[in-house]
Write a structure and sequence with these properties.
Elements lengths: L1 H18 L8 E10 L9 E6 L5 E5 L5 E8 L1 E8 L5 E9 L4 E3 L2 E3 L7 E5 L12 E6 H6 L18 E3 L13 E3 L7 E5 L2 E2 L18 E9 L11 E7 L7 E10 L7 H5 L18 E13 L2 E2 L8 E2 L5 E25 L1 H11 L3 H9 L4 E11 L2 E32 L2 E18 L7 E18 L4 E18 L9 E4 L24 E18 L2 E17 L7 E4 L2 H6 L1 E2 L1 E7 L7 E19 L2 E11 L5 H13 L18 E10 L7 H7 L4 E11 L5 H7 L5 E6 L3 E2 L1 H10 L13 E4 L7 E14 L2 E20 L33 E24 L2 E14 L26 E2 L6 E10 L1 H5 L7 E9 L6 H11 L1 H14 L10 H4 L3
Length: 993
């Protein structure tokens, strides 16, 4: 495939170099309409000119024999349209604002007379979509800059007020990078994010990987939630496009400063529960809100870009007006916060440390404890141990860690637009973000707080050209990077395994604020670097009542990743005595097999192509149809190649083979068809009242979409057998610390019973999940600036990713009759295949169905007011909501591995009722005071039904909430001597809910 893609890349470059290029269609708009005279007769050969009033850019076209014109690929912004024809007066319409992917309809009626006679109209194009079936929502610059998006000013948050979008609730896991949400029955990973049309998706976990926390830098946000045109794909839930601002002929900019500290903060209930805001507190810092200092400041600036004039005579600079423009933005964001950790009540005091040092300080596990666990403040507790025939009593104390949480972020962008002439436009944009977070995560004991630098970059260059009166071309070259690293503040913590002593309160092995064990967390360190390279080319051909688009998109993605959990080992000791004796309850370590790698490097190529036609059969009826094809590439090629090395290094033993081997998905064809019809009745009567004459539009269609794979699944495979082996010692293993360290230094070369080792695999038919979209929508224009929509949305997902127990225990077999395998017993008579161990399969087995009624009212900015109100009534059913556990109360595995359909129920992301709204209004009083900035009233709200709850979750909530009931049930279990499912207490099960 590499040779094929090299050839494809060469042909793409050849096309770009010989055809010319232009803006990507995802960042431009179109103007179309019909020119008639006062009697309604069409006027052919009229000249229609669209001029951007902010940059001076203009483009013109001639009407055809039916009086139609179509100006495609116009940069978004404010426009004036003028129409001229022989023997007719000139028509001029201003106040037109073009938005991303808008097909604005501007019909013109000319009066007989001379060209010197001018009819001027100030009116924006209608908000009605009369050309495509897309279901979308747009946020203008005013709403973006004024709405209370969130405390962190994250622009992604505006997406949470879109119809059909549901937010996560408490306890649910946001798997995607950035803001996670479900759109019209899609999963959290099913959203496609773009910046000025450039791909900014995180290939590792999905989501948007470029941070945007300065709303003043964004001119528009558009999200398509159903009925994608053929030019859009990659994901099935939504397509989100952030459009950055650009410069104009006038210098303009903004500046802001934000500051916050504890004096401006009230205590939340959680703060009060933690002991803050208590005027009687002995510790002064607990008498007020938690300590915090946060500041944000930044600016934007744009305008014409002037150049120095080095020639003799004339002005010292050459003006960039009407030709070259720049726009830049920058933001600095810092947070300083005091963090407190959990308390360890079993840390030896100074006296206790001295006893351990003198009695058993030469034992390596004890030396590690004394090195990484500071002395505790005496709490009156003691623990004893026996060594060398003598018993020692160790005084214990408390340790409550504290940390200085720091966050530093710099982000910004710079953009330059240049117009060579009215047929060729070029722009380039570079955006960066650099974050450093420290002091978070595990606070107790010290030295284990995380340090996490994250850097993102995104650069693109786009050329926009008109080749002929009917043909235009667009091309783009782009690159984005996400660089993340997470490690502990004290790197020396990596020299020992994750070490837990249950009785002393040292617990937890994965990174978390609640972890109190010593040694670096078992899932750290980790890092990843994502690079995405993109070349796009698309052409538009307009003839008569057809607007045809076709294009290609070639991408290469590189992911360099280190994620090897438990590669340093994990040890769990029951109490101080077993710890001193080095007899572990749990002792396990993972290590790469011979021929394998610790650091993984994935590289694959993707290829997308499409063709679509907007056929305006009649002025009031448009049929949109197209076909898209996606080749998602082979992201598993690295694992296949690595496995060949592992096989060769292990004597070509078939037990070391990657099995099954996923094939390459090559048949992702996506038909798209939709219609758009305006009845255009008389304006009188009941029917006229309903339609408003020409103010009603009926739209609908069908489209198939596919989801991209995310490399986190590949990492799961790479961190298990046959790439990584795991050694797990039986309980009560002697010399456990010494054995783990020995294996770490010299991994074993002989693997016994390799088929028994737990594996994570993907199915041999692993492919892109499919979603079918259906919609029918009615749009009614209330005013020129307000539209009401009522629509029905249906999406059906098939072949969705799901985790499956691929070698489950057989049904109708009691546990007592099963023989469990382990280090001392290689047999398991319970599993379907008794010769093999646990197999976690990631396959395309799940399905979903979503139905929704959506009502929305959209008011674009006019008279200092813009707003959006949305209500969604929906039903979301699926057999699995995620590949991993969707929340703390759910598991990804089916309850019956032999009947996956039995899990068909309400989705974790089902929100039957959801209302969201936003509006911005500038008070007219302050606009009259020229020396004061306008004072807006702005509101953003969302109300949604809570997620579904299982019967078990409800019973557990009742059980855990009533101490008397807990005591009775726990006592009954103990009397009956039933298995210790509750450990004679509700604590273990209650802690999971």
């Amino acid at each position: 495939m590499n040779r094929k893609f090299q050839l494809l890349a060469f042909l793409t470059i050849l096309i770009l170099s010989n055809v010319g290029a232009l803006f990507a269609q995802s960042t431009t708009a179109s103007l179309l309409g019909v020119v008639t005279d006062e009697k309604g007769s069409v006027i052919p050969s009229a000249t229609v000119t669209a001029r951007n009033t902010e940059t001076g850019f203009s483009r013109n076209a001639q009407t055809d024999g039916d009086g139609r014109y179509n100006l495609v690929n116009l940069p978004v912004g404010s426009y004036e349209v003028s129409v001229e024809a022989a023997n007719f007066g000139r028509y001029v319409q201003s106040g037109i604002t073009l938005t991303v992917n808008q097909n604005a309809v501007v019909d013109a009626t000319l009066k007989a007379g001379s060209v010197q006679e001018i009819v001027t109209v100030t009116e924006n194009a209608s908000l009605l979509n009369t050309t495509t079936p897309e279901v979308s929502t747009r946020f203008d610059a005013k709403r973006l800059s004024e709405l209370p998006i969130a405390a962190n000013r994250n622009v992604y948050n505006v997406l949470l007020s879109v119809p059909g979008v549901s937010q996560l609730s408490s306890g649910q896991t946001g798997f995607a990078n950035g803001v996670s949400f479900s759109s019209n029955g899609g999963r959290l990973r099913s959203n496609n994010f773009m910046l000025d049309g450039q791909d900014i998706n995180d290939p590792s976990v999905s989501g948007g990987q470029v941070a945007i926390n300065n709303p003043d830098a964004i001119g528009e946000v558009r999200i398509i939630t159903n009925q994608f045109l053929a030019e859009y794909g990659r994901n099935s839930g939504s397509v989100v496009n952030f459009i950055g601002k650009s410069g104009t002929n006038d210098f303009h900019g903004t500046a802001f400063v934000f500051y916050n500290d504890k004096r401006f903060n009230a205590c939340s209930n959680l703060d009060k529960r933690a002991g803050f805001c208590n005027p009687d507190a002995a510790i002064e810092s607990r008498r007020s809100a938690p300590e915090i200092k946060e500041s944000q400041w930044g600016f934007t600036v744009g305008g014409p870009l002037h150049f120095f004039n080095f020639g003799e005579g004339g002005p010292w600079y050459r003006s960039g007006k009407d030709r070259t423009f720049f726009f830049g933005d920058f933001q600095r964001w810092t947070i300083r916060q005091a963090g407190s950790g959990f308390t360890i009540s079993g840390a030896p005091t100074e006296a206790g440390r001295a006893i351990l040092q003198s009695a058993v300080g030469n034992r390596p596990q004890v030396a590690a404890l004394l090195q990484f666990l500071p002395a505790g403040a005496s709490n009156g507790q003691t623990r004893s141990f026996t060594a060398n025939g003598q018993t020692f009593v160790v005084p214990l104390g408390d340790i409550t860690g504290s940390s200085a949480i720091k966050f530093d972020s710099d982000q910004g962008s710079f953009r330059v637009d240049h117009r060579f002439n009215d047929k060729n436009l070029l722009y380039g944009r570079y955006r960066f973000d650099s974050n450093l977070t420290s002091g978070g995560g595990q606070v107790t004991p010290p030295g284990l707080t995380t340090v996490s630098p994250i850097k993102t970059k995104a650069a693109t260059m786009v050329l926009n050209s008109i080749l002929t009166s009917k043909l235009s071309n667009e091309a783009r070259i782009a690159w984005s990077r996400f660089d993340s690293n997470t490690n502990a503040a004290d790197p020396s913590s990596e020299v020992i395994p994750s070490l837990e002593i249950t009785d002393l309160g040292l617990q937890g092995f994965n990174a978390a604020a609640s972890r109190t064990a010593i040694g670096l967390a078992a899932n750290l360190p980790q890092f990843r670097i994502n690079d995405t390279y993109q070349i796009q080319d698309a052409m538009s051909y307009t003839t008569g009542n057809h607007n045809v688009k076709f294009g290609i998109d070639v991408r290469r993605t590189d992911v360099k990743s280190f994620f090897q959990p438990i590669i340093r080992g994990r040890l769990v000791y029951t109490n101080l005595q077993t710890f001193v004796d080095d007899v572990s309850e749990v002792a396990t370590i993972n290590f790469p097999l011979r021929g394998g790698d610790e650091v993984s490097f994935y590289r694959w190529h993707e290829f997308y192509t499409y063709i679509q036609d907007e056929w305006r059969i009649k002025p009031n009826f448009t049929l949109t149809f197209g076909l898209r094809y996606e080749y998602p590439g082979d992201s598993f090629s690295y694992l296949k190649e690595t496995n060949q090395r592992v096989l060769a290094a292990n004597g070509n033993n078939s037990a070391f083979a990657l099995n099954p081997v996923p094939t390459v998905d090559k048949n992702n064809f996506m038909p798209r068809i939709g219609f758009n019809w305006s009845p255009r009745t008389r304006e009188t009567g009941i029917l006229g009242f309903i339609t408003g004459g020409d103010k009603l539009v009926l739209r609908g269609g069908y489209s198939r979409t596919y989801d991209a794979n995310y490399i986190n699944l590949n990492l799961n495979v790479a961190s298990s057998f046959p790439f990584v082996a795991s050694t797990t010692f039986p309980a009560s293993q002697a010399n456990a610390f010494t054995l783990i360290q020995a294996i770490r230094a010299n991994p074993p070369t002989n693997i016994s019973n390799p088929l028994r080792i737990t594996r994570t695999v993907v199915a041999d038919d692993f492919r892109s999940p499919a979603t079918d979209q259906y919609s029918f929508e009615v749009q009614r224009e209330l005013t020129k600036d307000a539209v009401m929509k009522v629509g029905y949305i249906r999406t059906k997902g098939t072949g969705l990713f799901q985790t499956i127990d691929d070698n489950p225990r057989r049904v109708n077999v009691t546990t007592a009759s099963c023989v469990s395998f382990g280090p001392l017993n290689p047999n398991d008579s319970c599993r379907v295949d008794p010769t093999r161990g646990v197999i976690r399969l990631r396959g395309n087995r799940a399905e979903s169905i979503y139905n929704a009624l959506q009502v929305s009212l959209d008011k674009r900015l006019s008279n200092n007011f813009s707003a959006g109100l949305n209500y969604t009534y929906s039903s979301f059913i699926d057999t699995a909501s995620e590949t991993f556990n969707p929340s703390t109360a759910e598991v990804a595995l089916a309850q019956d591995s032999f009947n996956l359909e039995a899990d068909r129920a309400r989705s974790s992301f089902d929100r039957p009722h959801r209302f969201s709204g936003n509006f911005v209004y500038e008070l007219p009083f302050f606009r009259l005071l020229q020396h004061l900035p306008p004072k807006p009233i702005n509101v953003r709200l969302s109300l949604q039904e809570s997620p579904p709850h299982s019967v078990l979750e409800t019973l557990v909530a009742i059980f855990c909430g009533h101490s008397v009931l807990r005591s009775l049930i726990s006592g009954l279990l103990k009397i009956l001597e039933l298995p210790k499912m509750f450990e004679y207490s509700c604590v273990p099960i209650c802690s999971t809910f």
